[in-house]
């Protein structure tokens, strides 16, 4: 069985890594890694390959940045050539980024089977580009691997045949479980005892100057109680500089994007994480660290119902209220969702090899 894994953006790497490992060395399995080049900076891509022990990509499509249409179209036309040449038996796509949907469409048209890892998640907000990517990818995938049962329910409601759906758990947690000891061992010794950790990169947030000004003001207030560490995504860095907001503050520390191990290490000891990322909602739930998500909705509702995640929307008053609850320790007790156990990728391998 020849399997092509398509990755492109930072959150894909920690999902593909354990699946590649679970399939490596299995009888009759040959694997090819295609990097679309959606993320290309060393600290957004190369360092993840190194730390997650992902082999060098066999092919790099080098598409780079662009509008959604440009980026998706470049991936499609370049990836089509690869599929025609390599003739895979199945292509695995991960998550909800433009690389995911672009590769899935190519395969569907060439009648090559597609497996979607992290299928079924829905924010029900079609203004989010990722929601469009999820809906389309799931409709044209042949095998759908879901991280939580809400995913199965969403897919069934959308008419996906039950026999295509496999609830296997969360592959990103496989990577976390494997690398947590290493991440903890690398934590800098001069880290403050208490700190808040922030990430922000969604266009709906970071492209809005008023919102960013209000959020930085709120973060500076948090900074009076504890230092705030803010590794900045390149898009956010660009926007803050356009808005004249790129000066940090004594207690608000702007940093370059961190590696996987550095960021995981920081998450484990954070008093609170403030984010608009999808994956970080899951990682904090597993780690039991309070997470305040600066979005009106989430495609990962299980992190709210079982985990440590609270949606604060874009209202900084609510953020301040929730921060007070975290400080008072009155936030909820958490549970780890079913099958977030470090073995999701092995279940994917079993399904594929059957
Ligand atoms: C993409 C995903 C998003 C995911 C995020 C993680 C889509 C639609 N979005 O968003 O779901 O949460 O990745 O980071 O696929 N840039 C660089 N260097 C890089 C990559 C990007 O400077 O290596 C800058 C460019 O200015 C680029 C901008 O960041 O235009 C946005 O990059 P892009 O890949 O389009 O989307 P992300 O915001 O990273």
Tell me the helix content: 40-55%
Please report which band the strand proportion falls in: under 5%, 5-15%, 15-25%, 25-35%, 35-45% or over 45%: 5-15%
Roughly how many Å apart are the termini? 11 Å
The helix-and-strand class reads: alpha/beta
Strand tally, please? 13
Sequence of secondary-structure elements: EHEHEHEHEHEHEHEHHEHEHEHEHEHH
Number of helices: 15
Give the overall form.
globular
Write out the strand line-up for the largest beta sheet, numbering strands in chain order: 3-2-1-4-5-6-7
Low-confidence stretches: none
Mean pLDDT figure: 96
Ligands: uridine-diphosphate-N-acetylglucosamine
The radius of gyration over CA amounts to 20 Å
What is the makeup of the main sheet? 7 strands, parallel
Question: Can you put this structure into words, describing what you see?
Answer:
Helix content is 46%, strand content 15%. By secondary structure, the protein is α/β, with parallel strands linked by helices. It starts with a strand and ends with a helix. The chain is globular and about 60 Å long. The relative contact order is 0.13. Bound molecules: uridine-diphosphate-N-acetylglucosamine. The site of uridine-diphosphate-N-acetylglucosamine has 19 residues, from helix 1, helix 5 and helix 10.
